[in-house]
Amino acid sequence: MKFLQPFMIISMLFAFGNCAELFSSKDKDNNEDLILAALLAGPGCGPTAVSGSAGNGTKYNFAGCTGDANVVLNGFGFTVNGVSFNAGIQGTSNSSTIVTNASSLSETGNESKAGIEVVYVMNQAGSSIDAMIQTTTSLAGPGVRLSPTSAQWLNATNAFAFGTKAGSPWASSVSVEKTVCLEVHNESGDAHIFGWSLPCNQVDRSNYEFEEDGATISDFSGNRVGLRINNAVIKSITIYSSVIGAVGSFR
Q: In the record, which residues are listed under signal peptide (predicted)?
């Protein structure tokens, strides 16, 4: 079926060209970015709408991506630094980052919320991924640091053990694909950070595996999602447009 891909892309270009008058300048720029990303990427690469027991969202598949990571990921709505494609997004240090270009909240306002699912593989025992949720463009804010066997909550780059509910270590994710589901709520200015070492559609939404309630965050002004990728590969990230967690401070 690969021979159909050039025909499909040409058809997309023709369709968008004929319908250009229907889009604003910003919409046209976004569509052109997506088309360019489609031209440069491969099968199994890009965004798709998803729905399930955890709610609705957009899944960004990276396992099939090839070409210039900066160009392709920018077309998908991310700003990136120091990453490449290697069966996913390969990062080599804490300077290897991706962050969304637009708000990624599932609920806005003073009690904002954001949730994600990350599928990844750690390259070595010292690998880590900082999943920053409700973060700024410079990756300040709350998040979760993932190691090969456990998670800690984050205030920017400062990591702490989960205290409300510690959770248990899981089997090593070195050279093994792992999926986690993570969410952050802004509750009266403090962060409620929690998650599960499972795909979001498989979790008990009222029973968190690890949790920190009332975390003090130095800068809680962000509305993006971002990752620091230290010697790891990101296979996919799903950004949810609906709230996952079913318990907490809902006001």
A: 1-20
Which residue in 178, 179, 136, 185 sits closest to 164, CA to CA?
185
Q: How far apart are CA 153 and CA 95, in angstroms?
A: 19
Instruction: Say how many domains are in the chain.
Output: 2
The partner residues of 238 in beta bridges, in order of sequence, read 59, 117
Residue 18: both structure tokens together? 């004929």
At 66 the three-state DSSP class reads coil
* Four-CA torsion 53, 55, 59, 63, nearest 10 degrees: -20
Residue type for position 169 = P
Q: Tokens at residue 239, please?
A: 């950004």
Q: Is 246 inside a domain boundary?
A: no
pLDDT in tens, 177-226: 999 999 999 999 999 999 999 999 999 999 999 999 999 999 999 999 99
Domain coverage including residue 212: 44-240
Domain check: are 110 and 233 in the same one? yes
Considering the domain boundaries, does residue 225 fall inside one? yes
Distance of CA 148 to the CA centre of its chain: 18
Provide the CATH number for the domain around residue 63.
Answer: 2.60.120.560
Please give the Cα distance from 4 to 1 (Å, whole number).
Answer: 6
